[in-house]
Design brief:
24% of the residues lie in helices and 26% in strands. The protein contains 2 helices and 5 strands, in the order βββαββα. The chain has one domain: 2-Layer Sandwich (NE0471 N-terminal domain-like). It is of the alpha+beta class. The strands form 2 sheets. Strands 1-2-3 form a 3-stranded antiparallel sheet, with helices on one face.
């Protein structure tokens, strides 16, 4: 599994991620923030508090995290779609 080496919150509800193999891009989380645990992330200031957890996942202070492998596949897929 590729590891995240850089993580940045971008508005609105996007994460820019760079992986150790050079794969990078944005993932739009707006459509996936469903359910009560995601409510705090709808506040842009709280969303911006994303950090890289010691286990390598983007996470927020309320315990929400995003699986790095799924993030990697979405970014690779989006990149392939743009280059096709």
């Amino acid at each position: 599994m590729e590891r995240i080496v850089y993580l940045e919150a971008r508005h609105p509800y996007r994460l820019f991620v760079r992986f150790d193999d050079g794969t990078e891009g944005e993932d739009d989380l707006a459509g996936r923030m469903n359910g009560p645990v995601f409510e705090p992330l709808k506040d842009p200031a709280f969303f911006a508090r994303v950090r890289l957890a010691e286990w390598g996942a983007p996470c927020w202070p309320n315990g929400v995290d995003i699986a790095p492998d799924a993030l990697y596949e979405r970014i690779r897929s989006a990149s392939a779609d743009r280059s096709a």
